[in-house]
Amino acid sequence: MKYAYFPGCSIHTTAKEYGISSKAVSKVLGIELVEIPEWNCCGAMDAVYAYNPLLSISLSARNLALAESMKMDVVTLCSACFFTLSRAHKLLREDSELKGKVDKLLNESGLQYTGEVRVRHFLDVLIRDVGLENIAKNVKVKLDGLKVAPYYGCMLIRPPNIVHFDDPEHPKSMELIIEAIGGKNVDYIYKTRCCGASLGLTDGEVMMEMTKDLLLEAKNANADCIALPCPLCHLNMDAKQKSIESTFDIKIGMPIVFFTQLMGMAFGLNPKELALNKNCVPTGKLFKQIHD
Amino acid sequence: MKPNHRHAITSQMMDKSFLADVMKMRGGQNILDCIQCGVCAGSCPASWAMDFTPMQIVRMLHLGMKETVLSSSTIWICASCYTCATRCPRGIDIPLLMSALKNTAIKEKVPARIPIKPKFHKSFADIVQKYGRIHEPELFLKIANKTDMHGLMENATLGWTLLRKGKLRLKAPKVNQKTQWSSLFKNVAKEGSN
Fold first, then answer.
1. Torsions phi, psi of A34, nearest 5?
2. Reported CATH class of domain B11-107
3. What's the pTM value of the predicted model, to 2 decimals?
4. I want to staple A227 with a disulfide (CB 3.0 to 4.6 A). Which of A196, A201, A259, B152 is the partner?
5. Which domains does chain A have, with CATH numbers?
6. What are the residue boundaries of the structural domains of chain B, listed by start?
7. Residue B136: closest CA among chain A residues belongs to which residue?
8. Beta strands in chain A (DSSP E)
9. Which residue ranges in chain A fall short of pLDDT 70?
C-alpha cells in the first residue's frame, strides 16, 4: 500500500505528534507514505480563499499536479488540507473556465493536472484499504477500559458532496477503529460540532466559547481523553485548554490525542515513538492506565 | 455578545445590481433558491456571536442590501464548518458564499466589523506566496493588534506554549525554488483573483 503523502504545514509544526504517530502506525500496518516532493500550502480553506480564490485553488492544483505524476492516491492527515484539496479537485472538474486559467498557470511552471487524482484522508485508508481486521491483528496492548470521546470536527466529513467520506451527521469510522483496538467510545453528543477553527487567532473569545463546550461535554461524558483527526481542532482543544480554563474559571484537564497516538499505544509502541510528550495536556496518565 | 437588533428595511439600503453580482460569484449562483426555512440559522454553531443569521444574510442579498451585508459581523465569524450547507435543502453553499462576501468586502475596503479579519486573510496569503507554506510566527506578528491587549496576550501565550513544546518553527519554511512555485503564484496576480 503506497500513497502520495501530503503532510501539510501543521504536521511540521503545531501537530508534530500527529505526523510522527501516523508514520509509526503506518510502519506497523505496512503502509508506505511517500511524501510529495516540494509540496506547498494546500490552499488553506477560507484563510487564503477569502483573500484570493484563484491563489487558493492554484496552491491546491500545484499539489494535485505533483501527486498526479506519482500515480498514487493522495493521502492527508489534516482535515482542512483534505477538504481544501478535495474542493479544488471538484471545482476544477466542474468549472472549465477555472480549469483553463489554472492549467495555463500550471503549464507556465512546467506542470500539468488532468484531474485524475483521488484525494483521501488517512482514516479512510485505514478503514477501507487496511481494514479493521488487520488493525485488530496488530494490537499488542488492548486499550481496555479506556473511555474515549471520538471527535470528528468538520472538514473530514462535511460537506459530503466534496469530501465523500463517512456520514456527515453520524460518522462512525474513528469509533470503529477505537473499538478494534479495545477502547470504549463514550456517547459524545458534540462529535461533529465545530471547535471554532481559525477564529482562534482573530476572534479568540468566540473560539474559546465554542471549544469550551466541547471540552466540558467530554468531561460530562466521563471520557478519559478526546481522540481526533485534525491539527486545528487539536490546537484549540489542547494548546488552548489552559487559557480556556483560566478564562472561564473552570477545571478541565482533558488529554487531547490524535487517534493515531491511541492506535500506536495499542500496537505496543513507546511514548517517544508516538511523540506523546508533544501534547500540551499531559498524556502520561493514559499510557499508564492501559499498561496497568 | 451583542443581541440582535431590529433593522427596518428601507429602499435606500437596496442595490439590486449587487444581487446580480453575487449570483456571478462561486457560492452565490443559486441563492434565489433559498426558501428561508432557517435550517442554516438553527444549525450554525456560531450564530450566537453574529449580528445576522446566515438565513438573514441570504434574504438581505435578495433585497440588494449590500452595505448591511458587507459590514455585518456574520461574514467574518463564519468558520466554514459546513453544518449549514450539509443540511440546506436547496443546496446553497453558504460558507463559500460567505468567503465570496469576505473577498468582496476586502476588495472594496469595507470597514470590517472585526477589524483584524482582512489583515488576517491578506497576511496569510502573503506569507504563503512568499515561502510556499505558512510560517506561524510571522503570521502571529503580522496580525498582532496593539489595541487588543487581551487578544495579543492570548496569541503570545499560545506562541510560548508551542515554542516550549518544540512545535513552533522560528526559521521560515522553504519550498525548493527549482520547482517554480513562486513564478506560478506571481502569475496568479495577472489572472485576477477568481
1. -95, 110
2. mainly alpha
3. 0.95
4. A259
5. 2-121 (1.20.1050.140), 139-291 (3.40.50.11810)
6. 11-107, 116-175
7. A13
8. 2-6, 32-35, 74-76, 119-121, 147-150, 184-185, 225-228, 256-258
9. none
